[in-house]
Please model this.
Amino acid sequence: MNHKLNSLLAVLLITPFVVSAETAPVDYVNPYIGSISHLLVPCFPTIQLPNSLMRIYPTRGDYTTEMLDGLPMVVTNHRERSAFRLSVTQGEELHRIIPVTWDNERITPYDYQVQVADNTIDVRLAVSHQSAIYELSFRDPAKPATILLYTDNGRIQVDSRYASASQRLSKNMKIYFAGEFDVVPEKSGLLQDGKISDKWITEEPRACAALRFPAGTKKICFRYGISLISQEQAEKNLIREQGKDFNLAKVANAGRKEWNETLSNILVLGGTDDQKTVMYTAYYRTFERPVCLSEEGRYFSAFDGKVHEDEGKPFYTDDWIWDTYRAAHPLRALIQPKKEEDIIESYLRMAEQMGTNWMPTFPEMTGDTRRMNSNHGVAMVADALWKGLNLDAERAFEYCRKGIEDKTLAPWSGRPAGDGIDKFYKEHGYIPALAKGEEETDPNVTGFEKRQPVAVTLGTSYDEWCLSRIAEFLGKKDETAKYLALSYNYRNLWNAETRFFHPKDKDGNFLPDFDYRFGGGIGAREAYDENNGWTYRWDVQHNLADLASLMGGREEMAMELDRTFAEPMGRGKREFYEQLPDQTGNIGQFTMANEPSLHIPYIYNYAGVPWKTQKRIRQCLDTWFRNDVMGIPGDEDGGGLTSFVVFSSLGFYPVTPGFPAYNIGSPLFSDIRVKLPGGKELHIIAKGSSRDNKYIQRATLNGKTWDKPWFSHEDIKNGATLILEMGSQPNKQWGSAENATPPSAPLK
Model:
C-alpha cells in the first residue's frame, strides 16, 4: 500500500478530531495517545479540568478492552482506583455493575461521548472541578430504562430522583456524591436479589441503588457533585458549579474554555500537526496531578484525617514526586509559579499533619505512600527557591532535612531511620549491597523492592546537594558546607576501572563478576531500581562536570554516551523485558520510558558536543512519542514523562532541578511563545526548523550573540527572545567551548 495513504488511514483510525486552520490548542489534544502500553501500565484518556478533583476515564483495562464495566463517576487515585459506578440498561436482568459494549467513542479533556449496549444508548458526559453531568439518550425509547448507582464500601441512599452515597477510600477517608435526575423514575429503591426493593437507604459493602424510568423516556440527565468533606458539601459543590439547570452543553463549553486558556500558555507555529498534537497532549497530561482538594476554602486531609481551613492557599495532593520533580514541577514553576507555591505549601502542611515533619515523597489521596526511593521533595523546594518562588524556606529546609535524615532510606518504607543501612550510610557514605547468598537483616527493607543500594546512594547524594542549596539560599554556611560535602557520596560507588557505579558490600569491596546489564535481579533492585547500571551510570544530575572528570574528561564522557545509545540490549526482547519491564523505549541501552533517563540526551552539552544533544532529542521525540494509541513508550506517571516531551519540543530542559538553568536542545517548532507571569513572554524563534533542520548553527539571546548550550532562569524570567538559526548539518563549534558548559556543583 502507498505509505502516505497507509499513514493517513492510521491517523483517521485513532484520531478523534479533524485539525483545521482554526484549531484551538485544546483541539490538538488526543487523549488516546498512550492508551495501549508497550508493556506496563498505559495512560488513560482522562476527562478532567486542570488539576481538578473530578477525574474520569472509561472503566476498562485499555483501548483494546471489549467491554465497559459500567460508567465511571470519579477516579480517586491516579491510575489505580475509582469510586462509585453508574450502569444503564434497558434489559430485565439487573446487576450492581452491568458490562456493556462500546462504540463510536469520542474523548476530549472536558467531555466524553460513547455509544453503549450495541449502539442502543448514547452517552455524553461533561465535567467541572467537583461535579459532572451525564446525558443518556435511548435510541429505542419504547423499552423502559434502569439506571443503577453503585458504591463499593459505604452508604447509599435514593429518594425519587435524588441519590447520594459515600465510599470508604481508606481507614480515615471517605468520598461522597450527591446527585439528581431530571426525570422522575417510576420506581426507585435499593437493588436486592436482582430486583428494585422498597428500601431506600443502606450502608454495606457493594451497595447499589436502582431507578426505573418508564417506557417512552427518550433522554435522562444525571448530575452530581463530589466531596471529601460531606454529602452536604457535595451538594454545595454541584450547585456552585452548575447552578440549578441540567445543562451539559454549558458545562462542556466552560470546560473547553478553561482548557484553552490553560493550554494557551504555550503557543507554537511550524512543525507538523502530529508534532503539535503530541506536544499539546503531553502538556494536558501534566495537569492530571496533583489535584486540588479545597472545597469553598476547606479541605479534608488524609494525612491527619481532619477537615482544615485552607487559609486562601488551595491544598493539593496525589503526586509521585520521584517521577515529577525532574520536569513537571520545573514546568509549573516556570509557567504557573503561584500554583507551584501552593502545591509546595500543601506538602509542608502534610509534613506537619503526619506528625513526623518529614517532607512527603508520594503524597496521594489517602496519605503518603512512600513509594520508590530517595526523598526528592527537597529538589522541588530547592528549585523553586532559586527561581524566586515565595516559600517558607526555613520551614521547608527543616522538613526536607528530617525527611532525609530521620526517615529510613530503605525504598518503599515510611519508618524511622534504623541501625541497619541508615546508620551505615551515615558512617560510610553509601548503601551496602548484599553479597551473593547474604541474608537481609534490615527490617525496613522490603522483600521485593530490596535495598537498591546504588540508586539510593546516588539519589541521596543529589538530595543532600539540594539540601545544601536550600541552606545556601538561607545563608546557613555550616549546613551548606556539610551537605555539599555529602553530595559527593556517589563517588564511593564509582568503579574507576569499569567507569560504572558499582554495588559495593559492607566491607568496601565491589561485588565480583557484576553484570551492568542484568545484575541485580528483577528490575535490578538488588543494585539499582527499575533500570540497569547503564542508566544509573548517568544519575549524577547535580554534578555532571565531576562525572566527566571521573570518566577521564569531556571527550571520554561523549564516547561513553555514544556507547550507551549504541550498546545492544544483550538478550532478546522477551528475556530483556522479563527482567527489566520498566526499561522500554530503548535506543541501545538508553531507555526513553523511565524517568532516571530523561536528562541523559542533554548530557552531551556537558561533554562539549551539544550538536549530539540536538540529534538525540529529535531521535527520542520522533521515535517514541507519536500521535497514536501506542505513542508513549512507558509509564507516564502523571506528568513525569510527558513534561519531558513539552520541554524538549520547545527546545530546552531543566537537567538539574536546584540550579535555575535550562539546557538547550532542538525545538520542533519555528516559533514558540511561552507565557510567563506578569504578562511577560519567552519567545523562541527557530529559523528554518524542520525534520532535517535540527542542528543549531548560531544563536542570539535578547539580541546578543549566544554561544552557550544553556541559559539561566534569570535570563528569561522577565521575558526574553532566543533566536536559533537551524540547519541540516551540525555546527560542531557552537556551544562547545569548555567555558560554555552548563552549571554543575563544584569539582571535588
Remarks:
- The domain at 45-262 is CATH 2.70.98.10 (Beta-galactosidase; Chain A, domain 5).
- Residues 453-474 form the longest helix (22 residues).
